[in-house]
Amino acid sequence: MDGAHSAALQLKQLLPTSSADAVSEASFSYKENLIGALLAIFGHLVVSIALNLQKYCHIRLASSKDPRAYFKTKTWWLGLFLMLLGELGVFASYAFAPLSLIVPLGAVSVIASAIIGIIFIKEKWKPKDFLRRYVLSFVGCGLAVVGTYLLVTFAPNSHEKMTGENITRHLVSWPFLLYMLVEIILFCLLLYFYKEKNANNIVVILLLVALLGSMTVVTVKAVAGMLVLSIQGNLQLDYPIFYVMFVCMVATAVYQATFLSQASQMYDSSLIASVGYILSTTVAITAGAIFYLDFIGEDALHVCMFALGCVIAFLGVFLITRNRKKAIPFEPYISMDAMPGWYLHNRQLLFKRHSDSKKSLHHNLERL
User: Fold this and answer.
1) Tens-place pLDDT, residues 232-289
2) How far apart are CA 321 and CA 317, in angstroms?
């Protein structure tokens, strides 16, 4: 009897302790999620401000006929510094929060760009023009904010540290290997139709970008997490998987930028922003759910509310971008007349072509 009584007593003492540990673990996870979300929001805001600063620099140089090159202005360099700072914040956010939370927060950049564009717009507009062009943008901003709030509130909780052993275990797991096989087959098919059949549809190009982007964010989270652990004292840089992930991150980011550049030459930037955000976010969340098991242990209500937040954010981004005025290519990013010797070289080239054509004409007349 005494033994049974003491066992029951020990069980009663253990229950509150385990409950307290669970509460502490959940609190710590929520704190990490909050840090990651705030870093991502800060990073996207700063990147948006940086891009608009650089755009303002180009517009001001073009309108004032300033002979200086854009890289000789303080505004452009300030924009570059802010862009690097913002990208660093987004990069660090992957080390703290789940992939499924960080990726959809790219909507913050679209919201910020829309607000900056509306506030600092220089053109005149009529009341009916304002209603047609900007009310839906304000509605889109509101929807995107609501969607972002739902994403942050119902995002999955991630407790796993990005150690070399954990990343290697996820990399060789059969769900991710199956996902990689499907993704490689789909990517090769899309690339074949794009290159050989000239399928230049925006969905085809941006789906290629999204498939590459999903691998980029998976590797970014691994690299960022291992770097943060190394800074905290748990060295991870001696694992070969770190360098494998780093090389994959750089390679996929470069090819992703290449396809985006090709898409920007054929389609309007607002269409690329909306379609690209929807496709890239969907594919990246799927990759994160399979590789990092983001939604394991989450109840159905949280998953459904998270999905609802994604849909609302998608709708908001679509409304923001669909009413944007198409950009007029008023001047190139690299001002040709600012390049050394450009004017003289082209003048000599034109003179040479003119002389050659005159000689050819005289020669033909003499033969006749």
Assistant:
1) 888 888 899 999 999 999 999 999 988 888 888 888 777 888 888 999 999 999 998 8
2) 6
| Amino acid in position 289 | A
Q: What is the DSSP string of 183-194?
A: HHHHHHHHHHHH
pLDDT for residue 114 is more than 60: yes
Q: Contact 47/86 with Cβ under 8 angstroms?
A: yes
Q: Please, are residues 155 and 306 in contact by the beta-carbon 8 Å criterion?
A: yes
Q: How far apart are CA 253 and CA 266, in angstroms?
A: 21
The neighbour count for residue 210, using CB atoms within 10 Å, is: 25
161 confidence band (pLDDT: 50, 70, 90): confident
Dihedral in degrees, nearest 10, Cα atoms 252, 211, 81, 67: 90
Tally: H helices and E strands in the chain:
12, 0
Q: Tell me how far apart the alpha carbons of residues 305 and 150 are, in angstroms, rounded to a whole number.
A: 7
Mean pLDDT of all residues in 204-209: 92
Rounded-to-integer distance, Cα 214 and Cα 285, Å = 8
Give the whole-angstrom CA distance, residue 279 versus residue 107.
13
**Which distant-in-sequence residues (6+ apart) come within 8 Å of 227 by Cβ?**
95, 236, 237
Half-sphere exposure of 175 (CA within 13 A, CB side): 10
